[in-house]
Specification:
This protein is α/β, with parallel strands linked by helices. 30% of the residues lie in helices and 18% in strands. The protein contains 9 helices and 12 strands. 36% of the residues are buried. Bound molecules: NADPH dihydro-nicotinamide-adenine-dinucleotide phosphate (NDP) and oxalic acid.
Length: 308
């Protein structure tokens, strides 16, 4: 068994330590030392250069190091073999932490206190009842479901929007285009946790923001190309939205010229909301490698027709 590992953001040594204890006979190779390409039957990758995977004649499966597979699907030469996205407990926990952190910051007015400190203003703002502060999550998949449980545990009111109808204890659920507006109108904080697909590209636009409650905030952790940056800035400038925590941007790294860097109501992070820990991710990928070698159904296979 030989696996190509490719990522500019993840550490090969850590992934060896995460994977090899579970699959000791696995040979891990890199793009610089592919050896005999015909021996490579698996790949574990994040944003490989287009064409790299197509150069492996006996590739049987692709494991994504990320939950989002939009970059992989953009490669027109991507081999037509099962593609598995990352479903990992550390990724879900990190994402929930990020969302809970920003939600608490808005709910408790810490964003306003930070702004007041700049002009030495001592002014109290008290939060209302926590169960009346509603967080609306776009995307009720692996990450959205985990985040909604964490928010509920902390006492927030939670709603969620997805493509298919869901039933989750304690969560007010909405689905489909028809229910987007009522979903947006009820939330004090809207979290975007959608995959990037044809249907979600440029979805966070003027009409979307205008459907949000006046004074509400956006937490954007899906994919940058879902966001129409100028439309968000216009809604922040006119005060319709009171804040945005942005982790993913239309161009990454975010160009210096972007107004997002300097807007007083924008909080930026460099696509850092969630990342998979090789220790837990290694066990997850190893279990899929074992399924693959036994010819069993794989976990997390992407529906290429839907794009996620
Ligand atoms: P899942 O595939 O488990 O969930 C996706 C959810 O989005 C599902 O509930 C799905 O609906 C819903 N959805 C997809 N398309 C639509 C649509 N057109 N309309 C309404 N709902 C839709 O993905 P994950 O939860 O694992 O990950 C979500 C995304 O988070 C990733 O694709 C990635 O872009 C982003 N991400 C960002 C990270 C970061 O650090 N910023 C880290 C990890 C992920 P249904 O259930 O009906 O299919
Ligand atoms: C992911 C990501 O998709 O890191 O996992 O964005």
């Amino acid at each position: 068994m030989a696996l190509l590992f490719y990522s500019e953001d993840d550490d090969l040594g850590q992934w060896k330590r995460g994977l090899l204890p579970h699959v000791p006979d696995l040979e891990m190779r890199t793009a610089d030392e592919l050896g005999d390409k015909s021996e490579i039957d698996m790949a574990l990758v994040w944003q490989p250069p287009p064409g790299l995977l197509a150069s492996l004649p006996n590739l049987g499966v692709i494991f994504s190091l990320g939950a989002g597979v939009d970059a992989l699907l953009k490669d027109e030469t991507l081999p037509n073999v099962p593609l598995c996205r990352m479903i990992d407990p550390s990724l879900a926990r990190n994402m929930s932490e990020y969302i809970l952190y920003h939600t608490l910051r808005y709910y408790r007015h810490f964003d306003r206190f930070e702004a007041q400190q700049i002009s030495a203003q001592w002014r109290l703002h008290l939060p209302g009842p926590i169960d009346e502060f509603r967080v609306g999550i776009l995307g009720l998949g692996e990450l959205g479901t985990h985040a909604s449980a964490k928010l509920l545990q902390s006492g927030f009111a939670v709603s969620g929007w997805s493509r298919s109808q869901k039933s989750i204890d304690g969560v007010e659920t909405f689905c489909g285009a028809d229910q987007l507006k009522p979903f947006l109108a009820g939330a004090d904080v809207v979290v975007c946790l959608l995959p990037l697909t044809d249907a979600t590209e440029n979805m966070l636009d003027r009409a979307f923001f205008q459907a949000m409650k006046p004074g509400s905030r956006l937490i954007h952790v899906g994919r940058g190309r879902q966001l129409v940056e100028d439309d968000l800035l216009a809604q922040l400038d006119c005060g319709h939205l009171s804040g945005a925590a942005i982790d993913v941007t239309p161009i990454e790294p975010l160009p210096q010229s972007s107004r997002l860097w300097r807007h007083p109501h924008v909080t930026l992070s460099p696509h850092a909301a969630a990342y998979v820990q090789p220790k837990t991710g290694g066990a997850v990928v190893a279990a899929n490698i074992q399924r693959f070698s036994r010819g069993e159904p794989l976990v997390g296979v992407v529906d290429r027709g839907q794009g996620y």
